[in-house]
Specification:
Elements lengths: L2 H15 L5 H19 L6 H22 L4 H24 L16
Length: 113
């Protein structure tokens, strides 16, 4: 069994465990990857790096879908990306724009932190 087929079966199994539609799975995955990336990278959630990790993982997931199905399914792909990126993007922007949310001193973060 190829890696792509096994990957698709695993994703289908995970989606079945989530409420319908599958966009819930994308939302949970995006938030989970965002938090785990911050922990692994030892960066604050306001840092751009956990967000970029979510973007990279979702792009990789959509590429695996492309390989499994033989073509891009743009309608589904764009909705998957939006569902995955929405909350990590919104929270990152809010944490960077409103320093009082972090409870720390008011200081300006550099984009690369």
């Amino acid at each position: 069994m190829s890696f792509i087929v096994q990957y698709e079966r695993t994703i289908e199994h995970i989606v079945k465990l989530c409420p319908q539609p599958d966009k819930f799975a994308h939302t949970y995955a995006g938030l989970g990857i965002w938090v785990l990336a911050a922990l692994v990278l030892r960066r604050p959630l306001a840092s751009i790096w956990p967000l970029l990790t979510v973007v990279a993982f979702e792009l990789g997931n959509e590429y695996m879908d492309f390989l499994a199905h033989g073509s891009w399914r743009w309608h589904d792909t764009l909705r998957d990306m939006a569902a995955t990126w929405f909350w990590p993007l919104l929270l990152t922007v809010m944490l960077r724009a409103v320093p009082s949310l972090t409870g720390g001193p008011r200081r300006r973060m550099r984009w690369y932190q």
